[in-house]
Each structure stands twice: as structure tokens, then as C-alpha cells.
């Protein structure tokens, strides 16, 4: 029986999870592939003792010895970040090794260069673990939906942000308090910026857009807003209107241009994604042939992400065994058909909005605000005015009909300049 030798770089959460999956499922994987997949070496920054089941696997700190091993078939990068991960991956590719990674920041920022190098060297790059942890979303685009023009992608792609919003919703607690508890419990990183500011979600959306539409994506063109400004009052009032707030990745294929945004969004209570709570992820895809498809599962975690990384190792091993490397193009489209496409500038997009104004409790406040909205073509659908707060201000909450982002921007600038408006306006998009 053919042996496929694997070298793993990094033995943190995902690295050790991947090793564990390969170890625990060895017999099953052999029955499914016809090969013996062997963890041959591990490259780490500092030498350490591994759990008993890996005691015979050499742990190296010498990069030259690790990359110079001619018997390695697949190198698995699991350290994350841009450098040295990028140099390691390019070194592996240039040494004609297949690569598997779970590094979304790297794939979304440097994918073009990495996939060009892979094509030149006729090796594969698997990255299933980079988006939505254990959910097989990359394979779904590459294979399951290969006959579909993708019309839209909606995703809850960050478990940390979804956990925080779920806790705020269920317990009525403020963002900072929930974040602190999540950090104490180890659910959120000490520096949670990427997760709570939507950056991690934007990286993942960029990868999915490439797979879905065959386009190069500049992540900075994706309008990205985090959840740090969401307050319990917005969650409560959102509920009164029949919505739940989610950090949603949205991309729609408008033909000539592609919509792409990551924003806190009010989702109708009866939308399937509104029921995705806690640290879970979900992706809703619309294909022109299949219609609606929903994938749900663990978006992170040692064994779940290990399962995704192992799936890539298995795919590549099967291809090696059958001399069928690159049978399925890594990015779903053949490299020569990956094109730049126009991402719709946010100012051109339209949707209904939720606004929360904090105002003085004086006559004609509502008239002044609605007058400005009207002059900018923004039509109000409903209004809730709450009682006075301790500081004497009143929250006025409005839901609008579909309105243009550019008009909203101008109207809110005028409204915020009014003396009767005492705090920045809270603006949340409503999903339609
Ligand atoms: N930090 C990510 C999340 C997990 O919270 O979903 C890995 O992508």
C-alpha cells in the first residue's frame, strides 16, 4: 500500500487537532483512500514534547532539514498570519510539494501569488480549513455546486462575533461585558480586533467570492463594519420590529458588478440564519440551478478545523495515488479564468435601515428629523419613541423603506449637526 507522507508546520490548536484526526481516523482514512497517510515530521519554533501518540514523530526546529526531506508529499501550514507562513508555503511549492493551509488572512491577501506559484509547479493548495472551520464550504463550491452560477452568498463566518451577539441578545448584556467573559472563558482572543471588527469575516468572504464568481478580490474593497457599537437597546428594539442582529457577510452577483459587505445586519426572525447562535457558523448560497443551499456547523475548534484540514490531505492523497493532481482546480475556476471584477461601491447600494437617534425631549424634534430624511428621499416605514432616559434624552427609533446608502450618509450628517441630536446616530442595515 502506498504511503503518503505529511509534514506539519505548527502544533497549536489546529496543528495538534489535525494530527489527532489523522491518528484517530487512520484506519477509516485508509479504507477510503487506499493509502496510509503518515505524519512524518513537525516543524515548530521551539522544541517540545508531544503527546504519547506522536512520540515517534520527529519535532524539528531546523527548517532546512524539514523542507529538505525528499519523502514529504504534502506540507501543511498551520501557524497562521502572513509571515513566515507565506515564505514557508512558497518554499514548499517551489520544492514541488503539495500544500494544505487553514490561513484565511494569507489566502485572502496573497492568494494570487500563491496559486500562480502552485500552477507553475503543478502542485495543489488546499485551504478548506480557512473558511467556516469544519463546514465543507470550499469543496461545496469546487464540486457540489460546480454546475451553478452563484447568485448570492450570505454568511455568519465568525464564531466569536456570533457568540457575543447571541449572549447580548439572550442575556441583555452590553458588548464589553460579554467580550470580557468570552475572553475569560477562552472563546475570544486577548486581542479580539479581527473577530469583532469584521476583518476575519471579510477575509473569509473574499475567499468565498473567488470560489463563487472566479474573481480576484481586494479585501479592502469589501465594506467592513464590526459589532463594537451595537448596544443592548438596539437588540431589544430590533426584536420589537421582528429582527435579530447578526454580523453578516453579504455578497450578491449583479452581473456587471458584485456586492460585498460585512456589517451588523437586522435579519428577520424567520430567516434561517437568524437561528444560528453561539459560536456556530452558517453559509447560505443561492445557485441558479440548485436554488437555496444552507450549510451549518462549527466555525472553529481543534477537531472541527482538523477535520477540514484532513479532508484536504485526503483529497490531495487520492489525486497523488491516481496521478490526477489538479483534477479539480484549487480555486474552482481554472487560473486563466480568474478575473478582476467591479465591487459595487457602497454608496450605490440600497436597503431598508434601522436608525436610532438620541435627542433632547423638545417639540418638533421628530418633524426636523423626518424633514431631513424626506429631503434625501428616505421614506420612513415605522417609528418607536421610547421614554426619557436618566440623562433627559430620548431614543427615537425608525425603520425606513429601501434607501440609497449615499442619501443616508448625507441625511445623517445633517441630522447629527442638529443641536437637538446629542449623540451619533446608530445605523443598522435591514436584510431583505
Ligand atoms: N476566530 C475565528 C472565529 C475562528 O471566531 O470564528 C477561526 O477562523
Notes on the protein architecture:
The relative contact order is 0.13. 36% of the residues lie in helices and 26% in strands. A hairpin with a 7-residue loop joins strand 18 (380-385) and strand 19 (393-400). Helix 4 (85-94) runs parallel beside helix 5 (104-121), helix 5 (104-121) runs parallel beside helix 10 and helix 7 (159-171) crosses helix 8. The chain is elongated and about 80 Å long. The protein is of the alpha/beta class and 432 residues long. Strands 7, 9, 10, 11, 12, 13, 15, 17, 18, 19 and 21 form an 11-stranded mixed β-sheet that branches. Strands 3-2-1-4-5-6 form a 6-stranded parallel β-sheet, sandwiched between helices. A two-stranded parallel sheet has the order 8-14. It folds into 3 domains: 2-133 and 302-330, NAD(P)-binding Rossmann-like Domain (Rossmann fold); 137-298 and 341-346, Dihydrodipicolinate Reductase, domain 2, CATH 3.30.360.10; 348-430, Alpha-Beta Plaits (2-Layer Sandwich), CATH 3.30.70. The mean pLDDT is 96. It has helices spanning 13-24, 26-33, 63-67, 85-94, 104-121, 137-144, 159-171, 175-184, 193-196, 199-213, 232-241, 302-321, 365-375, 405-416; strands at 2-9, 35-43, 59-60, 74-77, 98-101, 125-126, 150-156, 215-216, 223-224, 243-253, 257-268, 280-287, 291-298, 339-340, 342-343, 350-351, 353-360, 380-385, 393-400, 403-404, 426-430. It has 14 helices and 21 strands. L-homoserine is lined by residues 158-160, 195, 200, 299-300.
